[in-house]
């Protein structure tokens, strides 16, 4: 299991208080990493406790990733805590649903600044550290809407297509410097992010019918992909968008 061992590695996960980010943070800790848990309003105490129970370290950094002015502080606090940054998981994200004709520019900007601008700047800041140390792993959380258009979510779709593109662009520049940049595209997962979809009986049924695995994904389903892309096992994997979707994209 040496290939997947993250002992001695430090990892930043944004949006780590709940949902997919919480599971990814715990999954990395189970593989041996120490964590920086970035969160905006929601308390990440539960995630921290679970990580500490595993015998790993965790610090909580309160920050709003949609505010560019707060991003350098995240990297600084991570460096202060662990001396280096080995893994960055850009997970924090929001979705706002409105038909495109009525979509407000305020919603557009809120979604793009959270889902895309933060990914660029945090990757740039962490990437500089990683290039200097000659190694590092960046994992961006993409979506099925990195490939498809979705309905009533134009800003989210634009942001997630851009996250896939940015992943490839950064991977190309940094692969030769020992830094791997990849993305995970979760399928339809049962989290707060999809509560509205699951509450809509018609859409919920349509979605389920298209998933070959015949179930919504759960948070645990992302742990394996996150550990793989954070570990030595993926050292020759660059700019890949790994679907963890129960087969949705094949259909
Ligand atoms: P969620 O709403 O349960 O969790 C999102 C997390 O991000 C929360 O902890 C929230 O506090 C944090 N966050 C939001 N805005 C923030 C900000 N400005 N600053 C700091 N933290 C912020 O959603 P989730 O389903 O766990 O989503 C996590 C990621 O996975 C998102 O990028 C989302 O787009 C993506 N995703 C989710 C699904 C799904 O089916 N749930 C599918 C594909 C992609």
Automatic annotation (TrEMBL):
Family: Belongs to the short-chain dehydrogenases/reductases (SDR) family.
EC number: 1.1.1.127
Listed GO MF terms: 2-dehydro-3-deoxy-D-gluconate 5-dehydrogenase activity
Name assigned to this protein: 2-dehydro-3-deoxy-D-gluconate 5-dehydrogenase KduD
Gene3D superfamilies: NAD(P)-binding Rossmann-like Domain (3.40.50.720)
Annotated keywords: Oxidoreductase
Domain Ketoreductase: residue ranges: 9-177
Gene: kduD
Lineage: Bacteria, Bacillati, Bacillota, Bacilli, Bacillales
């Amino acid at each position: 299991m040496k290939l997947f061992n993250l002992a001695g590695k430090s990892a930043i996960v944004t949006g780590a208080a709940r949902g997919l980010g919480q599971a990814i943070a715990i999954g990395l800790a189970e593989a041996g990493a120490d964590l920086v848990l970035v969160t905006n309003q929601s308390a990440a105490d539960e995630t921290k406790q679970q990580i500490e129970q595993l015998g790993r370290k965790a610090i909580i950094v309160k920050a709003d990733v949609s505010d560019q002015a707060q991003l350098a502080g995240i990297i600084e606090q991570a460096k202060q805590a662990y001396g280096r940054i080995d893994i960055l998981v850009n997970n924090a994200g929001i979705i706002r649903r409105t038909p495109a004709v009525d979509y407000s520019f305020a919603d557009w900007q809120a979604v793009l600044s959270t889902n895309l601008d933060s990914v660029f700047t945090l990757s740039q800041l962490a990437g500089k550290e990683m290039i200097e140390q000659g190694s590092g792993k960046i994992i961006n959380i993409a979506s099925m809407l990195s490939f498809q258009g979705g309905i009533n979510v134009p800003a989210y779709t634009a942001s997630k297509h851009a996250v896939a593109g940015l992943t490839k662009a950064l991977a190309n520049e940094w692969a030769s410097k020992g830094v791997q940049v990849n993305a995970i595209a979760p399928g339809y997962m049962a989290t707060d992010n999809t509560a509205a979809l699951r509450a809509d009986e018609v859409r919920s049924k349509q979605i389920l019918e298209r998933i070959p695995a015949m179930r919504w994904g759960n948070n645990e389903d992302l742990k394996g992909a996150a550990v793989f892309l954070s570990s030595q096992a993926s050292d020759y994997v660059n700019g890949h968008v790994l679907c963890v979707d129960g087969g949705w994209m094949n259909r």
